Amino acid sequence: MSSSLRLGLLLASFIALTFVLVSVIKKKLNIKYSIVWMLWALLSLLMAAFPQTFYDLSDLLGIQMPVNTVFLIMITLLYGLTFYVYLMISRNNEEIIKLTYEVSSLKKELEDIKNQK
């Protein structure tokens, strides 16, 4: 890996990590979801600082290019995040149904009370 590529990767990683951390501090991004982006930035930093590690990991996994190993790791993390988001959506949908039922029950009780008066 050329030194200019390593320098560019280090700079881009620091910028990405800083941007994510600032977004979390300003509460624009939930910390749960920022973890994937922080891992991506840290993985990029590691790749720039220690490129031989990814060459060795790629050889171990039988992957031709180290960048493909990084993409494989990130795709796996994104699949995990997607599954987690779908779990949250399912739980929220159940909660919405439950709350809708509760609100309609309370409305009916209120109408019954008004009708009795």
Explain how this protein is built.
It is built from 4 helices and no strands. The protein has 117 residues and is an all-alpha fold. Helices cover 89% and strands 0% of the residues. The chain has one domain (3-87).
Write a concise synopsis of the structure shown.
The protein contains 4 helices and no strands. With 117 residues, it is mainly alpha-helical.
What is the secondary structure topology, with strand pairs?
Layout: H1 3-25, H2 31-49, H3 51-61, H4 66-116
Helix pairs in contact: 1-2, 2-3, 2-4, 3-4
Structural features:
elongated; 117 residues; mainly alpha; 89% helix; 0% strand; 4 helices; single chain
Bulk shape: elongated
Series of secondary-structure elements, N-terminal to C-terminal: HHHH
Low-confidence stretches: none
Name the average pLDDT.
87
Q: What's the N-to-C terminus distance?
A: 82 Å
Strand content: under 5%
Query: Number of helical runs?
Result: 4
Number of strands: 0
- Count of discrete domains: 1
Structural classification: mainly alpha
Largest sheet: none
Q: Report Rg.
A: 24 Å
Fraction of residues in helices?
A: over 70%
